[in-house]
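Sanity check

After download, print the first record. It should look like this:
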Amino acid sequence: QVQLGESGGGLVQAGGSLRLSCAASGRTFSTVRMAWYRQAPGKEREFVAQIAWSSGSFAVADSVKGRFTISKDNAKNTVYLQMSDLKPEDTGIYYCNALLYVGATRHYWGQGTQVTVSS
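Expected structure tokens:
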């Protein structure tokens, strides 16, 4: 079992920045990769960024490329999402996701943190 706790959300004006954190606890040694997803009101959850836990290789969605950066601190079992030049369309609940391999792949989700960008 893995528990994920997000923090760092809030209200920011367009053009501003926020940094989200996701701290993992529990059986984290089986982590394959960590990711961020978001869900805007009335829309489906969408991929934002991911980072491989061992290699550090990462990918971000085209919609946030050049504005969002994902990073990790293995010692703290924490993944970060640095968001810059925020736009109103970035508003939504941001969820942390952990992919583990324990004989089979398993996904774990955090409770989410609200990000609201005002125009």
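If your output differs, re-run the checksum step. Summary of this record's structure: The chain has a mean pLDDT of 95.
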